[in-house]
Specification:
The complex is a heterodimer of chains A (about 130) and B (about 350). Chain A is an alpha/beta fold. Helices cover about 45% and strands about 20% of the residues of chain A. Chain A has 5 helices and 5 strands, in the order βαβαβαβαβα. A 5-stranded parallel beta sheet of chain A has the order 2-1-3-4-5, with helices on both faces. The longest helix of chain A has 15 residues, at about 110-120. The relative contact order of chain A is 0.18. With about 350 residues, chain B is an alpha/beta fold. Chain B contains 10 helices and 12 strands. In chain B, strand 3, helix 3 (about 65-75) and strand 4 form a beta-alpha-beta unit. In chain B, helix 3 runs parallel beside helix 4, helix 6 (about 170-195) packs antiparallel against helix 7 and helix 7 runs parallel beside helix 8 (about 240-260). At the A-B interface, helix 1 and helix 5 of A face helix 5, helix 6 and helix 7 of B.
């Protein structure tokens, strides 16, 4: 089943690539946000099933912060994407019920596998392996 | 030169002796905190973080040696200097014990004021230079982390750029060539995601590395939608030096791309197998095999791919072999397992 995804990534080239991959797999990308404020604005307009969240964002802002706001306001969970997924980062995201972690540079197969797992966990009626 | 005076914690349950020590330290210009018990001393050491603690060996609750041990094992106070003090009649073993517990120096009372002051200053000097070293190390760690982040991010940009550009080609042959290029660059870039955060950044664990790459090869080839072919991975858990890891990954990339192209068995599904196992004494063998028809002529496997495999095998100090049997075609590269110079954290 198709899911709706919010991409939060400040580097437009990488965001575009991610968007391509996700749409190629039959899902819908609702918006590309560059920082926590844009992420909240986009999610307020249209609620995604989940977000694909870069940890280090535009202007020194934090993806963990954006993920926390999305989670606390609307229960939207995130897949985390980063070139530095250390233990501290993972610990910070733990209370936000993370949907997965993908390291950069990513393999498209890894991103899509994480997206499919997230779909299973967040899209209603998609609980068990329906392919 | 005006400086805020350095703080010393003076621990002694004997009030007269504690007063005497405090007076000496005050006169020498230090700020002095006092504690009469071990428990009190530990609390002040944690809260005020004095750079130096002078502790008498006999305390009413826990011994001075134990106070010292706890200060040195608690990460928040481990950098604190400890000067152990005791009365004349102390046994040698007690002195040894306190030094073994981490005390930085030991003085036997009665102590001349000049000596107490001089030893205190020496320990504080040591504390300052250790603190400076720790700061430098922390800065260097941060810099390294930042550089790693940049490298990985730049590689991601390269991959994303290539991948987006790949959509632009209408001609199938050009697109296939471009896909090959992306696949090669991916094999090189992907290793960076697996280094650094590991306990040993000079080697790479081959199982996760090759499993990830093969999953991506399957995805990029569209094989996942094709029930007619499967890719099996049998990779032993092993660590290779980074440059060998990259070479092996590139060979796997070439061989699997080739196999995906012409592994078409007469009947049934194509099965491609990637195997990396220890092979005899100190050797490793990489085998990529399939159950399809072997390429008929050399020209079919000619080109950059074959050249790459030869050169990479040479870089591994290895040899390339080809096995053809009924219904199988296998290419293997056998190379010595080089014990990598293992990296250990310096602390």
């Amino acid at each position: 089943m198709a899911a709706t995804v919010l991409i939060v990534e400040d580097q437009m080239l990488i965001a575009w690539h991610l968007s391509d991959l996700i749409e190629g797999a039959g899902h819908r990308v609702l918006a590309i946000a560059r920082d926590p404020a844009e992420a909240m604005e986009a999610a307020a307009k249209q609620r995604p099933d989940f977000a694909l969240m870069d940890i280090r964002l535009h202007g020194g802002t934090s993806g963990v912060e954006a993920a926390r706001m999305l989670f606390e306001c609307w229960g939207v969970r995130s897949i985390y994407l980063s070139a530095n997924l250390d233990a501290a980062t993972r610990a910070q995201t733990e209370p936000l019920q993370p949907l997965g972690y993908v390291g950069k540079p990513f393999l498209p197969a890894e991103v899509l596998a994480a997206v499919e797992r997230a779909v299973m966990k967040t899209v209603p009626g998609e609980k068990s392996g329906g392919n | 030169m005006t400086q805020t005076p350095e703080t010393i914690l003076n621990v002694n349950d004997n009030e007269a002796a504690r007063y005497a020590t405090t007076r000496i330290l005050h006169r020498a210009g230090f700020k002095v905190l006092e504690a009469g018990t071990g428990g009190e001393a530990l609390q002040i050491a944690r809260e005020d973080l004095p750079p130096l603690v002078i502790v008498d060996i006999n305390l009413p609750d826990i011994s001075g040696v134990e106070v010292c041990r706890r200060i040195k094992t608690d990460p928040s106070t481990a950098s604190t200097m400890v000067l152990q003090m005791s009365a004349t009649n102390i046994a040698v073993t007690d002195r040894v014990n306190s030094l073994a517990a981490g005390a930085d120096s030991f003085l036997v009372e009665p102590v001349e004021p000049e000596e107490l002051e001089a030893v205190s200053r020496a320990l504080l000097r040591l504390h300052r230079s250790e603190a400076a070293l720790r700061r430098t190390l922390a800065e260097r760690d941060l810099l390294l982390k930042e550089v790693n982040h940049r490298v990985k991010n730049s590689l991601q940009l390269v991959l994303s750029m290539l991948s987006l550009q790949g959509h632009g080609f209408k001609d199938a042959e050009t697109r296939a060539l471009f896909t090959k290029a992306i696949s090669r660059v991916t094999a090189i870039a992907a290793i960076h995601e697996r280094l650094y955060q590991d306990q040993d950044p000079l080697t790479v664990e081959m199982h996760t590395y090759l499993t990830g790459l093969c999953a991506e090869l399957v995805r990029a080839s569209g094989l996942e939608d094709n029930a007619q072919a499967t890719l099996q991975i049998e990779v032993e858990e092993m660590r290779l030096p980074t440059e060998h890891g990259v070479a092996v990954a590139l060979v796997v990339n070439e061989l699997v791309m080739n196999a995906l192209k012409h592994a078409q068995p007469a009947s049934g599904a194509a099965v491609i197998t990637v195997r990396l196992v220890r092979h005899g004494a100190g050797q490793v063998r990489l085998t990529v095999s399939d159950n399809g028809a072997a390429p008929e002529s050399a020209s079919e496997v000619a080109g950059l791919g074959t050249q790459l495999i030869k050169m990479l095998a040479r870089q591994l100090n290895g040899t390339v072999g080809i096995e053809r049997a009924a219904g199988t075609y296998a290419v293997h590269v056998t190379f010595p397992l080089q014990s990598a110079v293992s990296w250990r954290p310096p602390y």
